[in-house]
Amino acid sequence: AAMVKRASKRNTFDYNKNRKNQKKKLKKKERPTIGCAQIRKAWDDRKSAKQNMQDMGLSYGTKGVLPINKKSFSAPVEEAQAVVVKPYVIREMETAASLRGKNTRTCSNDLTEFVQYMIREHNEDYKAMAKDEKNYYQHTPKQIKRKVELYKRCHPQDYGAFIASLQAEKTS
């Protein structure tokens, strides 16, 4: 049998690949993004994840966090506490957690129009609202009441202005 010489593909440079972007992608995969701003600020790239967490006084994973009580141990074993190098991280995280976040929930335009129409027509009579022909989705009185309360929570200024305008219409 005669040996057939195979045509080998040469190692040629691929001009269609952006090497800079590839390097960026690799780096991004290597180092995950940290969601918590306080931890991100105190993070040291030269240290391991476990060492970084210990420096901040946080636990890395759940293994060994809580001691397991075994009946064979007669006296509790005292564990050496890790020295917290960056205690400010925990303080900052606690203050951030104690601050109440702003309610970002809003109502859709359809819902506000629906609620305003129902209040204009029926005031606080939810049973009459449920029977109204504009109640296309056949909401029950309780569902409508919940929608009205949601509107009051989401847009308290708008609701106050709307009720004031209704009272002004009634007096005039």
Q: Topology of this protein?
A:
Blueprint lengths: L18 H12 L6 H6 L6 H8 L31 H11 L10 H14 L3 H6 L9 H14 L1 H16 L1
Helix pairs in contact: 5-7
SSE order in H/E notation?
A: HHHHHHHH
Apparent shape: extended
Oligomer: single chain
Structural class: mainly alpha
Strand content: under 5%
Number of helices: 8
Outline the biggest β-sheet. Answer: none
Family: Belongs to the NOP16 family.
GO cellular component, one term: nucleolus
Keywords: Nucleus
InterPro entries: Ribosome_biogenesis_Nop16
Word description of this protein:
The chain has 172 residues and is mainly alpha-helical. The protein folds into 2 domains: 25-65 and 81-98, no CATH class; 109-171. The chain is built from 8 helices and no strands. It has helices spanning 19-30, 37-42, 49-56, 88-98, 109-122, 126-131, 141-154, 156-171. α5 packs across α7. It is extended and about 100 Å long. The mean pLDDT is 86.
